[in-house]
Amino acid sequence: MINKIIHYFSANGSTYWSYVWQHISLSLAALLVSLVLGLSLGDWAYRSPRLRQWITGTSQALRVIPSLGVLFILIPFIGVGVLPALIALIFLGLPPILVNTVVGFEQVPDALLETGRGLGMTQRQLMVKVSFPLALPYILNGIKLSLVEIIASATLATYIGAGGLGNLIFTGLQLFRYDLLIIGGGSVALLSFLSMLILDLGIKWSSVK
């Protein structure tokens, strides 16, 4: 098995790295869009209690929709390729960021906000200097959960021609090539582990600061 894995890398190194790049670029694009939407909707939900329950409830409902099901729903409307895969991953990555953003802002003590207003701080200054720094550990935790789920689910992008490490996994399944399964699955697991490690360090740093 080890010899087969070594042979694959020696013969298909450039192909492997192209799969890794496709997987990472698709995952980061989905995370970026999820982050922008999650922070915006989270702030909006926090400021509007009437909408908070509806927004958070809807985001949680999105989590029960399988990514593969979203892909198949989107194919008749926008075809195959990167776009439907990106939209499906955004559906998956948005809820953790949105919910954790709301939770983070809710943990900011009202006394600190009142003190800031008493010092003449504007709403934007309160957000930048008080609310966001205190909510940052929660937001980073949401980003961690989102990114891990996105990286794992991005393997499904292979089904609709969006590329990524899923090519190795599904080719291995079809051809009973366990070396490809190990390479593809191990690479996805390693990417997830590294993303968790980096974001855990960010959470620890933001909590200490």
Automatic annotation (TrEMBL):
Molecular functions per Gene Ontology: hydrolase activity
GO cellular component term, pick one: plasma membrane
Subcellular location: Cell membrane; Membrane
GO BP, one annotated term: transmembrane transport
Transmembrane segments: 20-41, 150-173, 180-199
Its EC number(s): 3.6.3.32
Main subcellular location: membrane
Domain ABC transmembrane type-1: 20-199
Enzyme class: hydrolase
Pfam families: BPD_transp_1
PROSITE patterns given in the database record: ABC_TM1 (PS50928)
Name the record gives this protein: Glycine betaine/L-proline ABC transporter, permease protein
Species assigned in the record: Streptococcus criceti HS-6
Gene: opuCB
